[in-house]
Design brief:
The protein is α/β, with parallel strands linked by helices. The protein folds into 3 domains: about 170 residues, NAD(P)-binding Rossmann-like Domain (Rossmann fold), CATH 3.40.50.720; about 80 residues, N-(1-d-carboxylethyl)-l-norvaline Dehydrogenase, domain 2 (Orthogonal Bundle); about 100 residues, Transcription Regulator spoIIAA (2-Layer Sandwich). The chain contains 19 helices and 14 strands. The strands form 3 sheets. The protein has a 7-stranded mixed β-sheet with strand order 9-8-10-11-12-13-14, sandwiched between helices. Strands 3-4-5-6-7 form a 5-stranded mixed β-sheet. Strands 1-2 form a two-stranded parallel sheet. Strand 3, helix 4 and strand 4 form a beta-alpha-beta unit. The C terminus is likely disordered.
């Protein structure tokens, strides 16, 4: 990370001095950066003259004293509070009082690191994402004692370096590592409940949810030990808040040293010749000739056009927002309940999709004791006719995508309500920092926070631990939607009265 950050500053036109406590390491780092610049030239992504000028601005430092005239020092040493405090205490004796000091920590408190300093107001967090030269996001973190002017200088510097900075307060996980926890946690919980295997959960989140990677393959890439440590750190920093509870299944994986790609085995095998895991995909089933859509399907409304385009006759009637299959079963968007809870009707749930027109896979859930195989086949055939692969998962509340998105939106809404960051910065951070297909607040608004709150309420009723209790931020957004709908209704009523009077 230190090399990557140095390269970013160097290419932006700054003179850069590299310091490492181990003798010779700064020189090795400078050589590595120079080699990367050579590769950029070879690929045609950098002009040779610009490369030569950049290399001329790069200087290894033998001791801290050579940093005396620096305007900004960015630290990227090991994640230990005492090590960082010791380094910055020494730096304060070396640099001028107007030198901006920044830490690239991803897990430690910026406030705690600055607590040992004589001038804590000039201390900020500059959290780059790896690899720093490629990923655009930088979290600019203000500690409790950080001066606003220092935070603005850090923000403007990162922006001048071609990065996309976001401002946030010093809280556990900052923005990205805080808001991202449910992406992993809900998948792990569904797996622990035997709702679906890891390959199927990954496929549904990729092919229906639009995420670039599923949580199981992603944690194998990150390292199970690293991902679990971040989750545990956030959980402990929030005084063991149940919303951030770590997974026992992941803990067992770490204890067995199945850490992912780096050990050749994690959730999946990476041994030479290993067969890539395949998601569960339902065999072909005959589509029904017609279905009836009762009421508004909300975010799933685009399905109506897809069914019609596939040759299925769709009848519309007023109702509570579901699809009636010919055999009598009801096809409902995941709402946090399970199909086994119904006596009067057979209920088959289908999962949320980022974009139903572009999704290539849809998950269905139905308890085999509550739903006949014939009804399930009708539902499978209907989605297959619309061009979707179908994964049938266990009868888990909230299914996979819907449950994950609801929790991401809730954690994001809570962060904004607590002043961690602005709504815009939260969505930018999640899109750029972890490549989410949409910002969680943008996605939550598209689904509807009333629907999100309702789904979380049903989950909370089934898991009354507090994990799924809707945050005040989510509740306020849901009430805000209600208020806007009332205003629109009043406006329509008055407009109708005026039109009647005119006639």
């Amino acid at each position: 990370m230190g090399q990557g950050i140095a390269q970013v500053a160097l290419v932006a036109g700054h003179r850069v001095r590299l310091y490492d406590a181990l003798p010779g390491r700064a020189g090795e780092a400078a050589d590595a950066i120079a080699a990367r610049l050579d590769r950029l030239v070879a690929k045609g992504r950098m002009d040779p003259a610009a490369r030569d000028e950049a290399r001329g601005r790069l200087h290894p430092a033998a001791d801290l004293g050579e940093l005396a005239d620096a305007a900004l020092v960015v630290e990227a040493v090991l994640e230990r509070l005492d090590a960082k405090q010791e380094l910055f205490t020494a730096l304060e004796k070396t640099v001028a009082d107007d030198c901006l000091l920044a830490t690239n920590t991803s897990s430690l408190s910026v406030t705690a690191i600055a607590g040992a300093l004589r001038v804590p107001g000039r201390f900020v967090g500059l959290h780059f994402f790896n690899p720093a030269p490629l990923l655009p996001l930088v979290e600019v973190i203000s500690g409790f004692a950080t001066d606003e002017q220092a935070a603005v200088r850090a923000y403007e510097t990162a922006k001048a370096w071609g990065k996309t900075p976001v401002r946030c307060a010093d809280t556990p996980g900052f923005i990205v590592n805080r808001v991202a926890r449910p992406f992993y946690a809900e998948a792990l919980r569904i797996h622990e409940e035997r709702g679906a295997d890891p390959a199927t959960i990954d496929a549904v989140l990729r092919e229906s949810g639009g995420f670039r990677m599923g949580p199981f393959e992603l944690t194998d890439l990150i390292g199970q030990d690293v991902n679990e440590a971040v989750t545990r750190s956030v959980w402990e920093s929030f005084h063991q808040d149940p919303k951030f509870t770590p997974s026992l299944a992941q803990r067992r994986l770490v204890e067995s040293r199945r850490l992912g790609r780096k050990t050749g085995q994690g959730w999946f095998s990476y041994a030479e010749g290993a067969t890539p895991p395949e998601p569960h995909t339902a065999p072909p089933a005959e589509a029904p000739g017609e279905v009836t859509v009762l009421g508004d399907l909300g975010p799933a409304e685009p399905l109506v056009g897809l069914f019609e385009d596939s040759g299925v006759t769709v009848r519309r009637e007023s109702g509570a927002g579901y699809i009636a299959l010919p055999g009598g079963a009801r096809l409902c968007l995941a709402d946090g309940r399970t199909s086994v809870e119904y006596d009067e009707h057979e209920i088959v749930y289908f999962d949320l999709a980022l974009d139903y027109t572009r999704a290539t896979r849809i998950a269905l859930s139905a308890d085999p004791d509550a739903v006949s195989s014939e009804s399930l086949r009708e539902a499978i055939g209907l989605f297959q006719a619309a061009g979707k692969q179908v994964s049938v998962v266990g009868d888990v509340p909230g299914m996979i995508v819907a449950r994950t998105v609801a929790m991401l939106a809730d954690i994001a809404a809570d962060a904004v309500a607590r002043g961690v960051a602005s709504e815009e910065d939260v969505d930018i951070a999640m899109r750029l920092g972890v490549n989410y297909p949409a910002g969680p607040l943008e996605w939550g608004a598209a689904v509807g926070f009333q629907r999100i709150r309702g789904l979380l309420g049903e989950l909370h009723a089934r898991y009354p631990t507090g994990r799924y209790a809707a945050s005040p931020g989510t509740v306020r957004r849901a009430y805000g939607e209600n208020g806007r709908k009332r205003e629109r209704g009043e406006h329509a009523k008055h407009a109708g009265s005026a039109e009647s009077g005119d006639s």
